[in-house]
Amino acid sequence: MPSPRPPIFSIPIRQSHIETPQSSSPCGEVHVIVGPMFAGKTTTLLHRIQAESNNGRTVAVIKSNKDTRYGLDSIVTHDGMKLPCWALANLSSFRQKIGPDAYDQLDVIGIDEAQFFEDLYDFCCETAEHDCKTVIVAGLDGDYLRRSFGSVLNIIPLANSVTKLTARCELCGKQAFFTLRKTDETETELIGGAEVYMPVCRQHYVDGQVVIGAARSVLESKKLQCGTCA
Ligand SMILES: Nc1ncnc2c1ncn2[C@@H]1O[C@H](COP(=O)(O)OP(=O)(O)O)[C@@H](O)[C@H]1O
Ligand SMILES: Cc1cn([C@H]2C[C@H](O)[C@@H](COP(=O)(O)O)O2)c(=O)[nH]c1=O
């Protein structure tokens, strides 16, 4: 059954200066926005969605339901900008959740936290090439170890445009390309904000990994000593 929550919204014209990627093809489009945490990916996605809506297109935004930091009914940027959204476990459930009629009306679908969706590639193909919609995808290209994260890099060959954003290094203020995890947790997926992660430049990423590695060895040796001193 479709949810009663209004999934499609129109936004009053507020930022008419924002540029929308120009549509030149009659069929759909895929636009990808990547970068480290705090780079402005969500902000850019919301601006583009808002611009599309201001241009009279019908829009909806999806985020992963794994990220419950700000509740499940809106997408929120690190500086507090907000838009209503669908929080889903996978993208293939979207059509059924929103309802087929509402889905058919959509021109533009935004996806945030794209690294958490395993079915990203299939969804982008189907939505752009079969259903002729514009998909705007924002997500982390790399995890805290700079490994390819989820399927984000897999959709680059499908894309009309790719935008790589940077943040400011928290340690020196230079351009930050990477996300450093400050804690000693090692799972790939770990939801969190500034308490767990910080954007860093190349130098401070390398230094940070050395410092974190050294801290981890000290902690391990302390644990071993405690084990033998009991
Ligand atoms: N080190 C930083 N570098 C850049 N922006 C930062 C930093 N720390 C906090 N911010 C804030 O984060 C905002 C970007 O938030 P957001 O769009 O949610 O980023 P992302 O989705 O890439 O994590 C910036 O506009 C800025 O106000
Ligand atoms: C680097 C990294 C990040 N995550 C998580 C942390 C956040 O919940 C999201 C990214 O949010 P943002 O909108 O880009 O700020 O991803 C993770 O699970 N694993 C990682 O390695």
Topology:
Layout: E1 29-34, H1 41-54, E2 59-64, E3 74-76, E4 82-84, E5 86-88, H2 94-98, H3 100-105, E6 108-111, H4 120-130, E7 134-139, E8 161-164, E9 167-168, E10 175-176, E11 178-181, E12 197-200, H5 202-229
Parallel strand pairs: 1-7, 1-8, 2-5, 2-6, 6-7
Antiparallel strand pairs: 3-4, 9-10, 11-12
The structure holds adenosine-5'-diphosphate and the ligand Cc1cn([C@H]2C[C@H](O)[C@@H](COP(=O)(O)O)O2)c(=O)[nH]c1=O.
The ligand Cc1cn([C@H]2C[C@H](O)[C@@H](COP(=O)(O)O)O2)c(=O)[nH]c1=O binds at residues 37, 41-42, 67, 113, 140, 143-144, 179, 188-192, 197.
Sum up the overall morphology in one term: elongated
Radius of gyration: 20 Å
The biggest sheet, with number of strands, parallel, antiparallel or mixed sense and barrel status, is: 6 strands, parallel
Order of helices and strands: EHEEEEHHEHEEEEEEH
The strand count comes to: 12
Question: Which small-molecule ligands are present, each listed once?
Answer: adenosine-5'-diphosphate, the ligand Cc1cn([C@H]2C[C@H](O)[C@@H](COP(=O)(O)O)O2)c(=O)[nH]c1=O
Tell me the span between the first and last alpha carbons.
Answer: 59 Å
The helix count comes to 5
Q: Would you identify the regions where 5 or more consecutive residues have pLDDT less than 50?
A: 9-20
The mean pLDDT is 88
Comma- or semicolon-separated keywords:
identical protein binding; DNA synthesis; binds the ligand Cc1cn([C@H]2C[C@H](O)[C@@H](COP(=O)(O)O)O2)c(=O)[nH]c1=O; 28% helix; ATP binding; 230 residues; two-stranded antiparallel ribbon; 12 strands; binds adenosine-5'-diphosphate; alpha/beta; thymidine kinase activity
